[in-house]
């Protein structure tokens, strides 16, 4: 039996290097708010260094240029990367490119005839030479993908796509859009859709706008991290641009979102920890109403509760990662759904407490907390809202229970059964009781 929470020393060295690197090289860049081009210039040598250290795109298997670490090791690395919103791009696993690369890879595995997509899109994506977006949500359909209305009709050797998408992250900055569309309207709801690669400069692709959000109320069009509204009007792409097999879009998206979700959860651990450090530092620094904040019970409760919640989220996340490594994604679906809503809430709670302990300073742009808070609010919606994950957990858990007219723990019923079973014992009475019981 092995039941072990330790990290082997060789990998720990990599983690130590990564943590030092993120703090030393990436934290300072956050404070500059560089324009996109300068940011890319600053980041490129850092990406080279990560590649030299063998930590680039660690979520992918070695044959695809990744570290092949498995989810537990990845979790420990992502926890560090998650401390800074700039770090994922430096380590080659920023959303949505990381998930899209996985999607292309799974598609090629599923349909070997599409192996040419590796050189055309997968490798450039992995090298950071092109950018991608995942275009699924529509103004009228999000949490329930069976309601999607965008269509792709096969006419001759071309797919003709028509539809309206919403919240396509990086849509205006992407070279390729991975579009989820209904290709088989008469099939069962989950077999109706396929995913197609659409180069952004294809005629008929209209990036209507980058949507203003709580994070970026006035987005600069084309900036990485924006969320686009996109219209596809008679967009024609070759038949071979299909990812994987026809009708498998929903299944592929599930495969993409499963590990993708856990990677978010891992990064949230690092974000929570950073907010927690700010919470603690402020509480031992600020004096008010006769004592330091750290001496007030409410603040002590925040620190204890945050510590407990972060510990629980960490264990749940790493346990889900371990399950994926040892039993596969399918076996870990309940665990992934649990950490998606629980981890998002813990992240939100800790940042909220860190803001509160800083008072007015907490809501200013002088601290990263206000930006972290807005990002954390998103976490409860993207990759499926909390309510859907809670529903998934409850449904899956309830599969193990059967309806019973009388509760199985009903004491009178259990007593009657016990009286029957131990009838002989009860008949002989005190003679068979052990001495210690007799004494009582
Ligand atoms: C920051 C961010 C980035 C995103 N990036 C992308 C992207 O790159 N590509 C893309 O395609 N989409 C993206 N999305 C969209 C995201 O996937 C959807 O917002 C999400 O699936 C929810 O869909 P919706 O917004 O249409 O909400 P709806 O489906 O309308 O749901 C609204 C609310 O209804 C409630 N609800 C829904 N279902 C249930 C249920 N079964 N039980 C109880 N309550 C329920 C929930 O409270 C939910 O928040 C992004 C979203 C955000 C916030």
Topology of helices and strands:
Blueprint: H1 9-30, H2 36-52, H3 71-81, H4 87-90, H5 97-110, H6 116-127, E1 132-135, E2 151-155, E3 158-169, E4 176-182, E5 193-199, E6 205-210, E7 227-238, E8 242-243, H7 249-283, E9 287-288, E10 291-292, H8 297-327, H9 333-357, H10 369-379, H11 386-398, H12 411-421, H13 423-428, H14 435-439
Parallel strand pairs: 1-4
Antiparallel strand pairs: 2-3, 3-7, 4-5, 5-8, 6-7, 9-10
Keywords: FAD, Flavoprotein, Oxidoreductase
Subunit structure: Homodimer.
GO molecular function, one term: flavin adenine dinucleotide binding
Instruction: Please describe the biggest sheet, giving its number of strands, its sense, and whether it closes into a barrel.
Output: 4 strands, mixed
Portion in beta strands: 5-15%
Tell me the Rg in angstroms. Answer: 26 Å
Q: With helices defined by DSSP (H or I, 4 residues minimum), what is the helix count?
A: 14
Subunit structure: Homodimer.
Pfam family, one: Acyl-CoA_dh_M
Domain Acyl-CoA dehydrogenase/oxidase C-terminal: 247-398
InterPro entries: Acyl-CoA_dehydrogenase, Acyl-CoA_Oxase/DH_mid-dom, Acyl-CoA_Oxase/DH_mid-dom_sf, AcylCo_DH-like_C, AcylCo_DH/oxidase_C, AcylCoA_DH/ox_N, AcylCoA_DH/ox_N_sf, AcylCoA_DH/oxidase_NM_dom_sf
Question: How would you describe this structure to a colleague?
Answer:
It is a single chain. By secondary structure, the protein is an alpha+beta fold. The protein folds into three domains: 7-99, Orthogonal Bundle (Butyryl-Coa Dehydrogenase, subunit A, domain 1); 131-242, Butyryl-CoA Dehydrogenase, subunit A, domain 2, CATH 2.40.110; 248-397, Up-down Bundle (Butyryl-CoA Dehydrogenase, subunit A, domain 3). The chain is 49% helix and 13% strand. The chain has a four-stranded mixed β-sheet. β9 (287-288) and β10 form a beta hairpin. α3 packs antiparallel against α8 (297-327) and α7 runs antiparallel to α10. The radius of gyration is 26 Å and the shape is globular. The two termini are 41 Å apart. The model has no long low-confidence stretch (mean pLDDT 93). The structure holds flavin-adenine dinucleotide. Flavin-adenine dinucleotide is lined by residues 96, 134-137, 142-143, 167-169, 227, 378, 381-382, 384-385, 387-388, 391. The site of flavin-adenine dinucleotide has 19 residues, from β1, β3 and α11. Belongs to the acyl-CoA dehydrogenase family. GO terms for molecular function: acyl-CoA dehydrogenase activity; flavin adenine dinucleotide binding. It catalyses: a 2,3-saturated acyl-CoA + A = a 2,3-dehydroacyl-CoA + AH2. Residues 133-211 form the Acyl-CoA oxidase/dehydrogenase middle domain.
């Amino acid at each position: 039996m092995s039941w072990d929470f330790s990290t082997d020393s060789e990998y720990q060295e990599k983690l130590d290097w990564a943590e030092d690197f993120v703090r030393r090289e990436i934290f300072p860049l956050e404070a500059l708010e560089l324009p996109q081009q300068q940011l890319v210039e600053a980041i490129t040598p850092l990406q080279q260094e990560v590649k030299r250290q063998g930590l680039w795109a660690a979520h992918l298997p070695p044959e695809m240029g990744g570290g092949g670490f498995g989810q537990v090791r990845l979790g420990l690395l992502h926890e560090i990367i998650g401390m800074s919103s700039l770090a994922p791009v430096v380590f080659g696993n920023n959303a949505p490119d990381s998930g899209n690369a996985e999607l292309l890879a799974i598609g090629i595995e599923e349909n070997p005839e599409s192996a040419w997509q590796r050189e055309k899109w997968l490798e450039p994506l992995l090298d950071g030479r092109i950018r991608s977006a995942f275009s699924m949500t529509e103004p009228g359909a999000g949490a329930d993908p069976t309601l999607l209305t965008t269509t792709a009709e096969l006419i001759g050797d071309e797919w003709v796509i028509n539809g309206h998408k919403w919240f396509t992250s990086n849509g205006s900055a992407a070279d390729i859009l991975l579009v989820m569309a209904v290709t088989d309207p008469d099939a069962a709801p989950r077999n109706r859709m396929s995913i197609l690669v659409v180069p952004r400069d294809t005629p008929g692709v209209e990036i209507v706008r980058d949507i203003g959000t709580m994070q970026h109320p006035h987005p600069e069009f084309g900036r990485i991290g924006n969320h686009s509204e996109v219209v596809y009007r008679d967009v024609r792409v070759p038949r071979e641009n299909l990812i994987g097999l026809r009708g498998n879009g929903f299944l592929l998206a599930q495969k993409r979102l499963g590990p993708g979700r856990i990677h978010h959860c891992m990064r949230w651990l690092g974000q929570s920890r950073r907010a927690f450090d700010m919470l603690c530092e402020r509480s031992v620094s600020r004096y008010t109403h006769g004592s330091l904040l750290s001496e007030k019970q409410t603040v002590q409760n925040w620190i204890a509760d945050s510590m407990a919640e972060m510990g629980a989220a960490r264990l749940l996340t790493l346990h889900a990662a371990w399950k994926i490594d040892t039993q596969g994604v399918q076996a870990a679906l309940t665990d992934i759904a649990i950490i998606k809503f629980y981890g998002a809430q813990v992240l939100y709670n800790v940042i909220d407490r860190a803001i509160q302990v800083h008072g007015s300073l907490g809501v200013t742009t002088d601290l990263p907390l206000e930006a972290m808070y807005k990002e954390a609010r998103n976490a409860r919606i993207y990759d499926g809202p909390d309510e859907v994950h809670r529903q998934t957990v409850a449904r899956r858990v309830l599969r193990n229970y059967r309806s019973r007219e009388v509760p199985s723990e009903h004491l009178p019923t259990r007593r009657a059964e016990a009286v029957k079973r131990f009838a002989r014992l009860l008949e002989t009475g005190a003679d068979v009781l052990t001495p210690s019981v007799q004494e009582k």
